[in-house]
Fold this protein.
Amino acid sequence: MIDDETVAPADAPPALDPAQQSLAEALRVSFAILKLAMLGLLVAYLFSGTFSVGSNEVALRLRFGDYVGDPGNRVLERGTYLAAPFPIEQVVKVDTRPATLTLDREFWFETTDRESGLTRAQLQGQKAMPLHPLRDGSLITGDSSIVHAKWTLTWRVAEPVAFLTNVGSRPVAEKIVRLVAQQGIVQSVAQLAADDMLRGIVNRELAVGIMQQRLDAMRTGLVIDQLTLDKVSAPMRVAGSFDAVTSAESDRAGRIVASQQERAKVLGETAGEASGPILDLVTAYERAVEGGDEAAAARAQEQLDAALAGLTIGSVPIGGDVAQVINAAKTYRTQIVEQVASEAQAFTQLLPQYERNPRLVLAKLWEDARERILTGDVETFYTVPGQLELQLNRDPELQKARQKEQLRSRKRAQQEAERNR
């Protein structure tokens, strides 16, 4: 008798129990998660080469140690870029910001921390000794003198490819720049005089040119932007003598400037804007007279007369005291001419009358004279009877001066009385 149930094939796998089924399901889920994780790691690895470049830096891509891109397109500036992941490609960033380097010990005498706060006069008392070549830095000038100096320079990376190829890092670059700067300063100062150096006169272009030539010869990719002389001093043993010379020169320069200002002031007050041309004419006239050149003297005299008559020389007006004196002289001349003309006219009018009746004219003239004399503030002076009595008119200017002196005397008396209170 055949059973109703279906008979399983002979090659069918045995049925799993529930525990085995759960384990198999867990393994399938785990493998799926692992595949997703590996896929995510692969994507992250592929995009791990993404990088950004800031405003004060540049970047270079290296593929198996060699630069990526054409020689003109290797440097990557500000922006975001994608590179192959490490170790296929490597990104190297280079800081292009200017850096400052101070040379404050190489060419300066040795000072301790305590001496750094002392004044120059105090240092002269303590450092007035021969220089020690192993401890004291110095510079030899072109006239075989010795000076001390402190410098500051600014440098930066201008060619990143040459910098990475031949230098590699900023600490190494700073050491190279320091050594090159010392060479340039020594060579440039050797062509200067000590007096010029102590006044701060240095050939910065020559020094920077020497430094840049050395850096370019080594293909460092570095550039020197600026060199500054911060401080300069003579050796402390002779600093007092140098200071005395510098002080004398400064005083001389100050006196020259004051004299020039006083000269300009006097000339301006004398003739205004035309003082320079007038002075040139006067000088030319004097030289012609001294040299015996009468024709040149006559020409200069004629030009001077024309300028003073018109109060102008060229298109520049003549002002100052010269203009005041000439205008006053012209006014006085006009007054005198008018006065003489008036007197001549009056004489011409009186002459016929005088010829007809001289006594009457003289009496009239005497009367007019008494009226002019006795008009105004007249004081009467009484004399002894029988003697001549005179009536005098005081000088108004003297009277004003006496009144002012009286007022001043009263004010002084009042001030003295107030102080005594």
Q: What stands out?
A: The first helix runs from residue 18 to 46.
